[in-house]
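request received
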Amino acid sequence: MKLTVWTYEAPPHVGAMRVATAMEGVHYVLHAPQGDTYADLLFTMIERRDQRPPVTYTTFQARDLGADTAEIFKEAAREAYERFDPDLMLVGASCTAELIQDDPGGLARALNLPVPIVPLELPSYQRKENWGAAETFLQLVRALARPRAEPREEGAQPSCNILGPTALGFRHRDDLEEIRRLMARIGVRVNAVAPLTARAHDIARLGEADFNVVMYPEIAGPVARHLERACGQPFTKTVPIGVNATRAFVEEVGALAGLDVADVLAEGAGRLPWWSRSVDSNYLTGKRVFVFGDATHAIAAARVASEELGFEVVGLGTYSRELAREVRAAAEGLGLEALITDDHLEVEDAINALAPEMVLGTQMERHIAKRLGIACAVISAPVHVQDFPARYSPQMGFEGANVLFDTFVHPLVMGLEEHLLSMFREDFEFHDGAVPSHLASEHAAPRREAPPAPSAEPRLEPAAPEHGDVAVLERPVAEAGADLRWTPEAEKELLKIPFFVRGKARRNTERFARERGVAPITVETIYDAKAHFSR
Amino acid sequence: MKLTVWTYEAPPHVGAMRVATAMEGVHYVLHAPQGDTYADLLFTMIERRDQRPPVTYTTFQARDLGADTAEIFKEAAREAYERFDPDLMLVGASCTAELIQDDPGGLARALNLPVPIVPLELPSYQRKENWGAAETFLQLVRALARPRAEPREEGAQPSCNILGPTALGFRHRDDLEEIRRLMARIGVRVNAVAPLTARAHDIARLGEADFNVVMYPEIAGPVARHLERACGQPFTKTVPIGVNATRAFVEEVGALAGLDVADVLAEGAGRLPWWSRSVDSNYLTGKRVFVFGDATHAIAAARVASEELGFEVVGLGTYSRELAREVRAAAEGLGLEALITDDHLEVEDAINALAPEMVLGTQMERHIAKRLGIACAVISAPVHVQDFPARYSPQMGFEGANVLFDTFVHPLVMGLEEHLLSMFREDFEFHDGAVPSHLASEHAAPRREAPPAPSAEPRLEPAAPEHGDVAVLERPVAEAGADLRWTPEAEKELLKIPFFVRGKARRNTERFARERGVAPITVETIYDAKAHFSR
Amino acid sequence: MNRHVLVDETRRPAAAGCADLPAAAAPGTGPTVRTERGQREVFCGLTGIIWMHRKIQDAFFLVVGSRTCAHLMQSAAGVMIFAEPRFATAIIDDRDLAGIADANDELDACVERLLARRPDIKMLFLVGSCPSEVIKLDLSRAAQRLSARFLPDVRVLAYSGSGIETTFTQGEDTCLASLVPTLPPAEPRAKELLVVGALADVVEDQFARIFAALGIPARFLPMRKANDLPPVGEGTRMLLAQPFLAETARALESRGATHLPAPFPLGVEGTTAWLKAAADDFGVDPAAFERVTAPMATRAGAALARQRERLSGKRVFFFPDSQLELPIARFLHRELGMELVEVGTPFLHRQHMAAELALLPDGLAIVEGQNVDRQLDRCRAAAPDITVCGLGLANPLEAEGLATKWSIELLFTPIHGYDQAADLSGLFARPLVRREKLKV
Amino acid sequence: MNRHVLVDETRRPAAAGCADLPAAAAPGTGPTVRTERGQREVFCGLTGIIWMHRKIQDAFFLVVGSRTCAHLMQSAAGVMIFAEPRFATAIIDDRDLAGIADANDELDACVERLLARRPDIKMLFLVGSCPSEVIKLDLSRAAQRLSARFLPDVRVLAYSGSGIETTFTQGEDTCLASLVPTLPPAEPRAKELLVVGALADVVEDQFARIFAALGIPARFLPMRKANDLPPVGEGTRMLLAQPFLAETARALESRGATHLPAPFPLGVEGTTAWLKAAADDFGVDPAAFERVTAPMATRAGAALARQRERLSGKRVFFFPDSQLELPIARFLHRELGMELVEVGTPFLHRQHMAAELALLPDGLAIVEGQNVDRQLDRCRAAAPDITVCGLGLANPLEAEGLATKWSIELLFTPIHGYDQAADLSGLFARPLVRREKLKV
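response:
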């Protein structure tokens, strides 16, 4: 049993729904108690789909448990077939139904319906959403896809399948468009896209392509490996998020397709390179960022942050245990140890301890960052309804890189603004709660920050007593350097440091003091530490 | 003499620079004192251009005033010609040089340079930036453009010029791309684009197109009218910002080009319509918005806000005096009187008085909104460096409408969130300073709001004394209902209303009390007013 | 009172076509109630935590369930706006199921970790779920065990919010019912009104002012603070503010409380009748009652009159959801002149609903339970002006051209009492206004 | 002291090619100073308001000028981050020029409106601009007139920030000079140190601590509050914190103050020499001086040592801008081992710069004034590792492949004193680090 405030992933049957809902002509009959229908709103509200997901739930109740739940399932499956007339049916159980062991697969087969039935075994108490999506996709492909009957024609245009986009995927709609544009530009024909927009017969003819493009390894990795074995199709290993990854992806596709991509690469790489090299981006250099998300987006964001925006990645982690190895390798490349966890509280502890200047994470990290007063940009599911925007917002390709630049920079205080805040720390307009000037929202929260330990009482600190229009409360956090005492003068000096680097300054000072056994921390300790950590 | 905190527009010679910088092969010699070179950074920093603007400044100093400033101008013009080898030269004076009356046009002509010289008379003490750009563009066109020599070939593809985009324009780069795509889709050939990317010889052949597309009437209006007279070219009157305006624009272009656009219109209108009709947008209905900007963007934003997002536009204004008539007409259509002013302080007063829930304005209104704790989105120049994004961000066309939807909705508290805030007003997490949950920036300011008058002393109001982690100060604003007293109970009741509608509630209550001579305002007055204004 | 006709129905094959539509009833016979079975597109009782965890500010709700439960909670209602929610899930994993770990020890460890992190918690609810019910985890015993350990700092209670036992708002019912045994005994002769059911803070304050003006001593359940428990006893008069509190009412009655039958305080008429039920029982002088309530009723009526112009004659269709359907339908019909096409309700408590049923029109089609696909067929066929439904159905129906009102807003908006009557009608007017306004 | 060679030069035709490059000088001859004329790509003195209006927190700066002035102010340095700036422009319009309106009456009206809106203002500077100078508007008289009217609440002063008279940082000089007559007279025998020049708050605090530790009574000009004017008199010892304060120094000297010649407190060496100048004058025991400053100097030196590895041998080119070029060049060369290609300065105050010139290498090419196009030619030809320039030039040079450091950052960053020496070198290291880091 595990205490969970927020969960990064839904249960695995929601992964199956993401595949079923992405496709056309597929219906999913889910053995599930009343209430599990909530999952429909993920698609109709959060993703704003204009149709119900193609899912029938048995919605059994307590009184049915004594009776025949298996019969309820069969009736639901039969009615669903009659009403929705699908090309293919998926059948399975949610967590509660898994416990009552009714065998949906067997029951459905016993109905002798004239369409393929793909039974799904998704262990709810072990696995999660992305695994459920990958497994569903894999079972569909195993059931339907076959190697191409005739060898590739001499001189035919090279072709690929695009694998991975699903319903409810973070920016899948626009990533797919960006990949389609890239393929058209390179000159590769798209044989099929799956799961998004695919019908059963599209899955059946996946084997006809020359190779596969894997957009999201979490979802399409197992299918791509299966197709490599079963149909001899190689697949792309690069996820084209960021300028460099996109360039590498173009080269990889060129190699797989046997096409010259020099002209595609020569056309340029979007605006990120110049926006990042422009002198107003100088202040981004070395900003300490913490990255967390699914494996694909976390690895990509860390690379873009480090290589393409010049940030310093101080933490990298994922909740995608299935791809832990890849994230560990990426972290190692940055001199870090990856944080592999699906425990939101552990992520919070890590962010607290590292005191980064920015967090690139999921909706959950947005909460943590908000509470800690740290800038944050969302780079991965799970996300808010607002992260399904109307406008074209890919993460992949060169336009995706443009989007990433803006997304990463937007929450930060701008360069000259940083300077003015540093220079005139005492100005009453520059109190700790001041919002970056380019951000004006309906309302805004005062930033709270852990003060130097251990003044046990919350202090009401008027940022500008002589003008008195703002009061910021700093409250103690037990974890932070509870063993270290600061003199009042040192505390005061720390407050002269602008908030966006104060966390780092405090952290460095305490680390310096701890390593040298300095106590209490004085003004001079702050400057000793500053000189020590100066690079 | 006029007290000015911020100015909406630069002086007119900066408008001329926007035209010169947009073009290629043009050089501008500007008679101006030392310091006026600051204008270069508008282009190299704010717009991130990778080249210096093609401008030579004389940068005379006090000691030169006694000597021969005219000679300095001639030397500068001669050197500029030799160094930059332009196809055409613009010459003129900035505000200070205008006072010393050296006649740059005459001086430049006297140099007998082998390229066209276009002298600019831009009265700095009467006119402003957009007028300067329009006048410069007009003088260029007058000097160079001629009607086409031969009549249009029978059966030739219809063609147009795209007029208006300049350097430093708000989203001009991407609007142009969107217009190009629309023209390609409709089947109209683009004869020339100007000023952006044009050379002198492109201006010379403007007369060869069948009609003109006016992107920004502030800049291209005079040129389009001149070309209509001089070259017999009709021009578009619709600015395609928003779904409906884009559809109307497509129809207008179809009519001008003699092409059937039914299939273009049938293809759809982007995502705005569904995003706006999706039930999670229901809460947008009737939100009170104040719109201010240049005429083109203010008119468009008001129409989109009202027709396409379902907001209630409570104020509409512009600083573009040249197009005051158009803005007045648009305001009248919404039952409003337009605010025509270039005085930032007047705009601030209007926003204060109307207490809107959102402001759609310029960077200046962002400041006002920030100070008042009102949501704000930027829809018009003048803008911040951050409003020159890397990603594709048009305002025009169907993708522009998608962008507008996201832009207008982003600063608002979301629908269900609104409800939770209303229901659990006393919850300590829902203090007045709470930021919309989807926004996490590097820091955030406590919202300040004018309390019911006239408690003269600033009050420190702990939003949740029992948790005590936030304190919000409300300070009195002299203007707001200074004649009305609220009972302490009524003040307390008002605070139970969530902040995002509290301004409206206070305004309605005070208006109700004033009209009926109710004093003091009690709890029942609040509910009487609520019932009275209920719709 | 029992004018309504009961029609029971067991599961039937699909394709019943328009035979599904209830037949028109003869005048004077009251509404027709029909039971339907099939897929129920409703929330489970866990959803009640969304408002309950904010209402009792120092309580915490720990769901003992699966990842599905945790995901439902965070996805259902935009609750991810809370940076520090006061609910969490103890997620059962395969170790618990395989018996490798003792589920009770595991639960105790979760509670320990939680209480260590959140020392501000004064009351902890262990909330049962479908999986915990199916594996027969005894949360009541666990609550007793943990209470013994953590009292007096934290009281631990247990209730079920499982989908197999509770529908949506019933989670509030089971939660409040679990509170009843902990209420202190009232003075035997102390006659006091107990208003039962979670209300928006601002509404609760309004009612408190009205009862004070009427001279009626009143308390509210749930209370805002865990330790501010209202007493209960023979003198307690129970006025239900919400229609879904069957178990809570039963538990309070077993503690000696007397139920005051009344319509629910939705709309002007309902609010007056509801207040009147209390006033009459407490012997308030009718003139005094009139003096206190008439100005408010008049004011609210005036506000409604303008809305009536917009809504009168419009046809409304209710999918079953919150058990608020009947009182709201009554309000829409009687005070705004709307036409009721079909009123679904997940469950019909005939005793608590008696006063409402008496006010509903003859022949009204009330459907208890649900077969969502067939109900959708009926809804499409009827093409109502506005359809009240859950979040899963709203956008698809909008895309088909039907205006909808999501039922969850009825729980998240202050709608009770006089001064909210216009707000309640506004919820129904807004989607129609929006459709008129939008030119895209 | 006067080791440097002066080369004067009048305007010459372009296309001078490499003849522009100063010839290498013989050893021991000191830097070569050459004057250049042509387009000056520099800010005017109004720009100083950007930092001055934040330094004196209850002062307000009212530029009397054109829309160009107003636009410069809001565009130049990201000042639009201020929701409530403490500067504004009284924009002259054609009515003022045509004599339809009396400019003095108009100005008085602007000031009235301003002071009514901002009752917190204690000190108001009327700031002259190019147009106000050309039309010969007498702001000093206006200031006297308005002071007479608004004192004791508001003191009104006037100075010029016009481009025809002042370059960039000279606006601070003229501003401070206008303050000097208002300073109270010091006790005749009171010997006190006056540190002149706006410093970042944190740096000012550091210096205040050091002077306190040395036992030197010290005050700072500008003061943070308008009414906290430091006294001046015969006992005043003036230590310049900034190199661009010619007029202010002259004005203070006319009030009796004595200038303490010293290098400027940039870098460890400069800071020590600067402090030493004061310590020696105040008779501080050398051992005591050592005790106070040595630990800080050592600490700062250690921080610099690491930066030296990165910067040593790198070639730097200065466009003229802030008059900080010489002291910073001296620091980069002597403490970080950087090579100086060309050091431009808008103006060279030979007396105040004497100590700096003495520390600069023989044959260094110092260029006073500017012809920006020719300087760009030289810069491109020299291809330095880093170029210090204004905002108008930085991105174009970056696009050509040259790393740049925008000079305005040198004004907006705490760079003075020991503990900021590494920050100062960091400003030069960062663009190089960035180029190494970026893989796009």
